[in-house]
């Protein structure tokens, strides 16, 4: 409980910098490299969870909500995934563990130190060739979007799975940017964390207004990461319109 209270007191720093402010993110990378079996993604995930429970709470999706992320990726079998909010790379580890062998995941992180921590952990887990992190934001005047297009193959109708877990005020603007780019296709899934704590009311209202026409959303009632007394909600939204962009060629769709 005391760890959670200290975390809440540092929320302002988290919002500004993406880090708690006491060095726990770098310490996590050191801990993983010292204790996790190299090349063993399961063991790296286990060690991160152990660190969060026994040493310092982390703001990744955590083990309970992580099961929802695992299940969604397994069900969709996406070939191109985008994550908004890398933090220390934990959720990307979970997605990479269950996504198809030929899938690629790009993660966007606005804090350069976090991006460095994630790369160290992914390299140790043996995922450097399947997962990429870009330092930036979707709102940085097109720089990050251009890199996603030119370096990672993003384009109309190509994005199968989007995981949103960064700054709550950016949830809706970033979703709208992706819609404007027409990257989603009918059946694309958007999974969004922290719908109750800290919450993103404008994003949630946007989806509710379009329920059944542009989106079909399920609410998963769960708990804030690494504890069981503060409730949280994860949204899982399927994109519906047939006007989302060019359909995949039949060979690609059937490959899933």
From TrEMBL:
Signal peptide: none annotated. The keyword Transferase applies. Transmembrane segments: none annotated. GO terms for molecular function: O-methyltransferase activity. Keywords: Methyltransferase, S-adenosyl-L-methionine, Transferase. CDD domains: AdoMet_MTases. This is Methyltransferase. It comes from Mangrovihabitans endophyticus.
């Amino acid at each position: 409980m005391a760890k959670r209270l200290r975390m809440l007191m540092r929320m302002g720093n988290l919002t500004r910098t993406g880090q708690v402010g006491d060095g726990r993110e770098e310490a996590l990378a050191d801990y993983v490299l010292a204790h996790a079996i190299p090349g063993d993604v399961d063991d790296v995930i286990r060690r991160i969870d152990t660190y969060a429970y026994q040493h310092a709470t982390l703001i990744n999706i955590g083990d309970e909500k992580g099961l929802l992320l695992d299940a969604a990726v397994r069900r969709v079998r996406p070939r191109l995934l985008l994550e908004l909010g890398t933090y220390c790379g934990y959720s990307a580890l979970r997605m990479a563990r269950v996504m198809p062998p030929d899938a690629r995941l790009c993660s966007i992180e606005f804090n350069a130190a976090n991006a460095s921590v994630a790369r160290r952990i992914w390299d140790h887990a043996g995922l450097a060739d399947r997962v990429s992190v870009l330092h930036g934001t979707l709102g940085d005047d097109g720089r990050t979007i251009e890199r996603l297009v030119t370096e990672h193959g993003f384009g109309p109708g190509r994005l199968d799975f989007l995981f949103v877990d960064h700054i709550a005020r950016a949830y809706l603007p970033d979703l709208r940017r992706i819609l404007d780019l027409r990257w989603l296709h009918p059946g694309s899934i958007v999974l969004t964390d922290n719908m109750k704590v800290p919450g993103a009311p404008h994003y949630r209202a946007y989806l509710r207004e379009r329920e059944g026409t542009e989106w079909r959303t399920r609410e998963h009632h769960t708990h804030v990461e690494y504890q069981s007394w503060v409730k949280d909600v994860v949204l899982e939204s399927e994109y519906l319109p047939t006007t989302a962009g060019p359909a995949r060629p039949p060979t690609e769709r059937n490959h899933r």
